[in-house]
Amino acid sequence: MNNRRYVIGSLLLTLILVLAACSGYSAESPAKSPEPAPVTLRLLTWADDRYLQLYEMFHKKYPWITIEPVKVEANEKDIMAKIKELQKAGTPADLAWIDGDLLAYEEKGLLENLKPYMDKDSSFQDKVLPDGYFDTMNFRGRRLAVPFVDVPMWIIVNKDLLAKHGVEMPPNSWTFDDFRSIAKQVTDPAQGEYGLTTSNEFVMRLLPLKAAADGHAANLAYLDESMTQSLLYTPAVLDDVRWLSGFVTEDGSMLSWSKAKEQHDVARNFMNGKTAFEVGGDWLLPRLKKDAKFNWDILPFPRGKLNQYSFHIYGPLALLSGSEHKDEAYKWISFQFELEAQKWKIDEGANASVIDPELTDYIDEAPIWQGRNIEAVKMTKDNGLVLPGATIPGFSEYNWVNMINEIVFNGYDIEHLIPETTSWNKKTLQLREQWKQQTAK
Predict the structure, then answer these.
(1) Is 133 a residue whose pLDDT tops 50?
(2) CATH superfamily, with its number, for domain 154-312+385-440
(3) Phi and psi at residue 68, to the nearest 5°
(4) What is the pLDDT, as a whole number, of residue 323?
(5) Primary place of residence (predicted)?
């Protein structure tokens, strides 16, 4: 009887093994999970083809997810219009680069809160990010966006023009006095050569950085320590504006808009090789490498009376509330902080957002910086000030750049800054109060 049971048992076991072999199942090789359904994520962006390689890197990691860039203009009105247009068409956007006030998008309910996603994201647990990295994009407990890229800036230098006038490349510790002195030394109107490119980048980047480095304003854009009021009307900051205006009106080392036009705008384009200094970031580097006919390099922004800073922009990347693929869209956001994506951004001239020795060492290897002032690149990792504004009520209506442009390049009266600044200070406080009341309801 026992032998009969053994034979039957053996036959059953053999039958099971044969059936398992036919079906492809084995105890060591469990059945595969079904492939995820293909997903296409629509990303609103004003970039051209620059990020195609990054899209492909993401697709390689998540083969079922494809990034479809949707071109928009870099302004709040066009971005919001495109979000509404795609929503109405039944093909909602999933992700967006944000220009303008994040609060304007938040007020219309267009943004998904990223904090719950990030709190559950295990890949973030072992990453070290700079202190306050998300501060400019947090509002009332909600994370409205994350920095897509950390864009540092430098003074771009035409080394050939400096050498022509007997000026050596300054050290990284140079000062604002050195900057102005060299600009005058290399200026030769008879040859159409000037110290500074006629560029509002000096108004947008250099001037507010000087005010911060000299201790005249706690933050960029002349904002006070609490980032609730502009200090653009104060005597010290007005003197900073006069300082930059002096390059045009006293030194002649930078041309006004009208004078530049008389000279066919040659001095308005650093690539012409006729100016020594320009402010630049990752957007300018590819053109320099490809088209510059002169020897160029970078320097950090000059040292002020109290500090030496670098100017940074954090480009906000948001997950849109209308997305039908929020989990997949968040994967694109999380991917930005993986080492492979961070290295790609370094290759493009941006900073690594993640603090990691491997990324710091990679700066020395990045092809874009070979033969350049790599130490200046490394300085920008630790001495950066980030342009605020993303969650400052009414920041897009703060007209500081245009006002100062008119003073520096068109000779407008500097006193015009005072009433308009006072008006904006009043309005931003009113908008803050409105937000408080809306939140309390």
Answers:
(1) yes
(2) Periplasmic binding protein-like II (3.40.190.10)
(3) -110, 105
(4) 98
(5) other
